[in-house]
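Pinned message: reference record for Mitochondrial carrier
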Amino acid sequence: MSQTQQPPSPSSDPPPAPPHTPIPRPRTSGGSITSGTSKTKLSQPEQFFLSALAPAVACIFTNPFDTAKIRLQLQGAHSERPSPSPNSTPGTSPRTPKLHYRNSFDVIYKTIKYEGITGLQRGLVPAIWKEASKNVFRIGMYDPLVRLMHDPRDGSPPVWKRILAGSLSGAMGAFSCNPFELIKTRLQSTSPTHAVGHQHHYTGVIQALRHIVSTEGVSGLYRGSVLNIGRSILGSGSNLAAYSVIKEWLTLDRGWGDTVEVDMIAGMGSALASVVVMNPVDVVRTRFYNQNYVNGVGTMYTSVWRAFATILSREGPSAFYKGLLTHFLRIGPHFCLTFVFLGSFRRALTEWHDKRSASVTPAPTSTVLGIVRS
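Predicted structure (tokens):
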């Protein structure tokens, strides 16, 4: 007798679903730098403020490395090449001048030995103003530019959009900070015992501003701004894009949290990317900034291209990577601390907003400056 097939019980488990491709998690960060993973978003003025504050605080710790980098890059400048002695044999080349510094660590050692710790902190005041005036645009405008070019609902922005946003915001920041960058460079080169480059002997920021305006005009404060903008386009484009990509990979792909450790790793990685592309322009900019000017014309280099050609012909291609190690020793910790402070300040302010909103009666969700605030 044949058995009749029983229909499946309604309570029986359904057949297993066919294999399918896992659905990726939504990439909600969108390459953001000033916004974290919290649902509470800071207003744009708050983001601008933190973007200026974080690098200004970081500068206090990293300015000594910047001073060492400036002095090492100025060493070997055209003005230091001696003229032939009247008693020298015709047709012979003058002796190579004695170099004050052998390497980056020698700069730091001799500066501390002969000038003390304060020697390494030369130019600190204009350096702080430079970082604040630069990064209020460089970091503060990065996220708005990314959102302008890419809808966050479409997922993560491509790398080229991040590079373009970083380059544009970097150009804005470079122009705004040029006067402080110029004064900082000239103050850092000043040394009573191991002078390199032209010595301007400024006594402070105010005296430097007055002297430059009186002798070179207001346009003198923006001397080399084209070179500074070009450097920042390269540096910020690589730095901010690398930071956002690394942080997004760690938080979304690797499952790490929005923590200080992530800020440190992403900051150091972004510094490595930027220092490689920036150092050649940095050497030319340092030489061009620090030279003496007569009637608005440089006594060593009459133009940026002339500076580039002179350095290349007299010192060779390796001169463009002078101070590379010191540059990274300064820019690595600087970017690391900048993004650590930025993330810490942002998380603290976000937590304050959360506690404040929890202590009052919840209000309907509103939109301010295009940012949803709960």
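Pinned by admin. Summary line: The chain has one domain: 44-76+102-356.
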